[in-house]
Design a protein that fits this description.
It is built from 6 helices and 2 strands; from the N terminus they run αβαααβαα. By secondary structure, it is mainly α. The protein has a two-stranded antiparallel sheet. Helix 1 crosses helix 5. It starts with a helix and ends with a helix.
Amino acid sequence: SDAEMVIQEKTCEKKVYAQKLLDFFHAADTTGDGEVSFEEFEAFLREPRVLSYLASLELAAHETKQLFEMLDDGDGTITTDEFVKGAMRLKGNARSQDVIGMMHDVNGLKKSMERIQQQLTAISMKVAA
């Protein structure tokens, strides 16, 4: 059916894209240790051909440190898994979905904070009485 063909096409496109990301990662991993440090990442992104390649992958690299931090899990290096999963999330529709998800989470946190504030106010009034 047409739906199955579309699904197969999208799956194939994702695999090709993931392979391009892996190729990019391995080229950036100049030490060959399976991780990319900020220094490796920054040096790699200074090359004009690399910036062009990133643009072809629909990833913006104008803020190198910000891009690195979005991909890194906080340990100061990017693994293959972090890079591929993170880059796929930064591309296209996933970005919009992530923003909507974050807005939903922030609204939930805001409501929780308001409830906590109300409870603290009630407690402080009881203590003051």
